[in-house]
Each structure stands twice: as C-alpha cells, then as structure tokens.
Structure prediction request, 763 residues.
Amino acid sequence: MTTPSSPPPRGETPPFWRDPAKRALLFQALMLAALFMVVGFIVSNTLENLDARGITTGFGFLNDTAGFGIVQSLIDYTPQSSYGRTFLVGLLNTLLVSALGVFAATVIGFLMGIARLSPNWLIARIAGAYVEIFRNIPLLLQIFFWYFAVLRSLPSPRDSMSLGEAVFLNIRGLVVPAPVGGPGFVWTLVALAVAVIAAIVLVRWNRRRQEATGDRLPAGWISAGMIVALPALVFVASGMPLTWDLPKLGGFNFSGGITVLPELLALWLALSIYTGAFIAEIVRSGIQAVSHGQTEAARALSLSGGMTLRLVVIPQAMRVIIPPLTSQYLNLIKNSSLATAIGYPDLVSVFAGTTLNQTGQAIEVIMMTMAVYLTLSLLVSMFMNWFNARMALVER
Amino acid sequence: MSKLTLNTTPVDARPAPKRGVGPIAWLRSNLFQGPINSVLSLLAIWALIAGLTPLIQWAIINADWLGTSREACNSGGACWVFISARFEQFIYGFYPSELRWRVNLTFVLFALLIGWLALPRLPAKKLAAVVTLVVFPVVAFYLLHGGSFGMPAVPTHRWGGLMLTLVLAVVGIVAALPIGVVLALGRQSKMPIVKSISVVFIEFWRGVPLITVLFMASVMLPLFVPTEVDMDKLVRALIGITLFQSAYMAEVVRGGLQAIPRGQEEAAAALGMGYWKRMGLIVLPQALKMMIPGIVNTFIALFKDTSLVLIIGLFDLLAIVQAALADADWLGFSIEGYVFVAFVFWIFCFGMSRYSQYLERKLHTGH
Prediction:
C-alpha cells in the first residue's frame, strides 16, 4: 500500500497533473496530436508514392469509358458506359442479391428455428443438424460448393433439366418464363395496390374498434380475401392481359424467358442457407426467452393456441430476436461481397476488382466501396432500430 | 325427502394406463402425437432414407480409399485417394518437406497450451494465458519462419494449407485482443475525443466487409508506407485482419466490462486506486473471465473468415484445395475436395462452439 498523499494546504491550487479535468485535457490534446501525426505521415507517404507511380488522384476517372462488359445489369449498360455507370451496376447487383438473400434467409431461419422447438423429435433433430452443419462451414466454401460442384456440373442447355417445359436448369443458369403485361395489365397492379392499402386501413380501424368496444372482426381473413379477390376480378374483367414469354431452345442456348445466372443462384443459395442457420438459432433462443409462465397464463385466460402464439409469445420473442437479427442482415449484406470469388458482378467484383485494376485509382475506389457498405449498414440499422422501437413493449 | 338408493353393482374396471416408458411409448410421445405429427415424421423418415442412402453409398461403400493416382478410382463412389495423395500439401502448403518437423512442433506446442488453458483441472491458468499470448507467438514465429538459431529461413510465400489458416486465425486473435481492450476502454471513457476516436474506429471496421479490408491491405497499404519499406503479402493480410478483428474484439470486451457491476469500480475508487489500477486489478480480471465465450465465438468467426485470403492470393486450406482441383491429373473431384475442407473446418468450429457453450453454462453463476 502506498501512503495516502497529504491534501494540498488550503488556498494553494494543486499542480495541474493532479487535477483530473486538466489531465484529461492534456491527454486528449496529446492523442489528437499523435493522430494528426500518423495521418499526416500516411498522407505524405501516399502522395509521394502516387507521384512516383504517376497516378493522379481525384474522381475524374468516373467519367472515363469503362470498356468492359458486365454479364448482368439491372440498368442499361454497354462497354462504352463510364466507370461511374459500372459503380451503379455493381451497387444494384449487390442490392439485388442482398434483398433476395435477406428474404430467403428469414424464411429459412424462422422455419428452422421453430422446427428446432418442435415436439416432434425427428423434426427438431433435423433442424438442429441443419444449424450445426451449415453455420460451422465457411461461407466461401459453401459458395464454391454450390457454384463449382453443383451448378457448374449441370448439363448443357441441350440436355437441360426441365420442369413442365417451362422452367429449365442447365450450366448457363436457371431459365424461367417471363411475364409480359399487355395493355390494361396496369389496372390489375393498381387494384393490388388499392387492396393492400385498404387492408392496412381495415386492420388499423379494427384495432381501434377493438380497443374501444372489445369487438373485433376477423380482419386477417378479410384482408387476405380482398388482396386476392380484387386484383383477380380486375384481371378477369380487363380480359386477362398477361402472357408468358416461354424460353425456347434455339441452337446452343435458350431465347426468351428470364435467365438467372448460375453465379447469382449459387450466391443466393449459399448466403440464405448460411445466414438462415444463424437466424434459426436467434429465433430459437428468442422463443425460449419467453418464460413458460407466459404461455400458461395465456392458456389460463382461455386464449387459443394461435392467439397465445400471436398475442403473447411472438411480441415478447420479437424483442429478443430483432437486435441480433439486424446484425445477421448486416452480415449478409457484407458477405454478399464474396460474389467476387465466383465472378458474380457485384460492387466489389466490378468496381473494387475490374475498375480498380484498369484505372489504378486504389484509394478512391476502395474508399467509395467502403463508403457504400458503411452507408448500407447505417441505413439497415436505422430501419431495424425504428422497427425495434415499434415492436418494443410499452411499459406503463 | 327422497329415499336414498344404493348402487350395489360394481363399476367396470378402468383400462390399464398407457405405458409411459419403453420404445413404443417413446415413439408415441415423440414422433406420433397426432395425425399432423405422424405425417411429418413419416415424411422426414422417407426424406432421410432417400437422402442419406446415396450419400453413404457414395462416401463410404462405393468409395476408393487406397492408391496413389486417379486410376485407383474406378468404383463410381467418392475418390478419397485424391485427398490422401495431396494430404501433406493440404496441411503444410509448399513448406519444404525436410523442415516440416518445425510446423509439427509448433502444432504440438499449440495443442498442449490450448489443452492447458481449456481443461479446468490443470493449474496456473494465468501463467498459461501469458505463455500462450506472449511467449508462444514469438517461439512459433522463430520455428515457422526460421532464419536464426541455425534453422534455414522459410519465406512466407511457401506457407500454406491448414498451417496458414491457423497462423492467420491465431495471429489475428492474439494481436486483436490488446487493441480491442484499449478500444473498449476508450469507448467507455468520459473524455469526448478519446471516446469518439474509439467509436469511429470500431464502427468503421464493423461496417465494412472483410474482403474490402483485405483489398485495402493488399493495394492501399503499400501506398501508406515509405517506398523503401517492402511489406510481405502475409504481413499485409495480417495487418488487415488484425484491424478488422480488433473492432469486433472491442465489442466483446465492452460486453464483458458492462457485465461487471459498477460497485466494483466504485469500491476500488473508494480505496484510492487510480484509473489504471482500477481497470488492471479490479475490473479487467473479472471482465476477462466473462469474455472468454465471446472471444471463442469471435475466434470461430475469424477462423471461417480466414478462407477469404484466397481472394488476395494467399494459399490457405480452401485456396490450396481449390488450386489442386484445377490440376489436370485430378479433374472432376471437386466434391471430394470441398467435403474434405468442410470436414476440417467443421471439426474445428464445432469443437470450439461446444467449448464456448460449456463455458457459458459454467460461468452462468446467476439464478
């Protein structure tokens, strides 16, 4: 033990290194100075190195002609387009596979998470085996497996596997019929939108009515019926203006229909199966976190099994599930960058890969790529925080 | 008043209760509780038989195990000869075969240290932790790289396979731990500048994918240092992985710090301890114990993520198998190769996750 230091005599201010506030100021000033020195060192080195290699800095390269093709693009793109355009194409492809992946992973994850708690021993074991197998194998390996071992060993277009002469699966990808809306098909879509809006209004009105009077309509069934029936009626009334563009084998490849690239399929499968395993664990632990007394109390109030689940268990489980679910969604978006390993044209592949190699603008390209992922992360966590705040129980 | 009548005929005997034990009762209560469950169970049994039978036939019954070349693979099943013929390369990469004892020695030392740390009965855990985190990396570097003590140097571009995977993961975790502790303390600091620097650093690395970090490490890092410094490819990857991992580690440490009641720190402050003494003697030792499951979980994630280094041209376990699949002598055995890699990764990750679950149960001393 050190002897306690004697307090300074009254009227005398202590030396500044004994004053925590001043010490903190000094420490922070030193830290800032060190940070500036490190940054300055890096910047000066970088400028020197760029100068030695003859690379000009700046974002002017974004207007130059790219000169390379991209196999999948959601917007118009030709090799004559600019590098700025490749950035957009890559970004949209990343968003596409992320959205598909988030959807499929959520479905798989919730199904498997609930199956893991099934009273059926076999179903619970199968779900458990799925989780333990797929979350302990690297995602990149799973992508390689689906791409090189499964999809790349499919037959050629001539001997494709087919489903009812409409859907074909071959080494070039999955070919499905494309819907072609005729004139007037737009009204069916309008009817769908109207039905969805009406359903939302109905559910809200029903909730308010229930809180006021205690009566409730089966709003779920009514809205479901409305969403199916209204567009169907309009569709029939306007003369069924929808045709299918069926894929046809001509020469060595299919024409017509929509071709889903094998790269996209492999990435989608791997991302959803891998992330689904993590989501299943989150769902399982979320449901288990709701204490058994809650279910018993609900049954004692004579709520039915479905109502117990919908009104008591799920709202409480969601509070536990949403925060880790958010980070799984973020992981999935970030993991979609593994596309570059199999050549799916995502942001990292076409921009941080091809564009960087062609222009040599390493700093600008990497910074833009990182900024995109940071922004996406921020947006998704903001949305999920908002959703979480809505789902959180209001404690009185 | 009504007359009391007495029923004198005996009631029929009740049937015996359903058996609560035995295989039939087990089946009834676990697989065939009702019509829906019975259908589900039958479907699952059918799917398992339909799926597993060809798998077992391919992987075990019809597989070829012995031989040295692809001619040995003619029975139509899996060709494990491919794995056994290339096994040494998958483990050691291009490490010179006469020097592989050094890798083996490192593996053995590592396994012994991990055993010392993980088995609860062995004493002196603190010493074991110090040896693993400080002494072992130095010894391992001299053993693997060589170049002194009369051992010929093996340049890092000859490292590969499982050995490189382990090097990347272990160095990533060991180097990220101290940075993570500092960052977590900084994030909890009351000094605004220290806090914001830590928060920005942590959130930046957590918000970007590891691939972009590796790209950055391989193309931007050489620009950041003076021209005369020539950085090894492996070192660059390690720097990227360490920066990336330290942010995740900081969040694990923060979780551990938050699990310690504030009273602990206040009591230490009441005893007149300064900040570093409070942290070093009171808070961190308790928090570190709580953090071990979290650290193991980050290690599992990092261990799987090390496979991404194949994108910047390092030959870890997955990359070296991927390269072997392109060998003209062994074309068409990609499934065997992937199954082997998956099996190796799975054993490591599953083992570690079981250990971390066990620790969580053991550390859960609450209600």
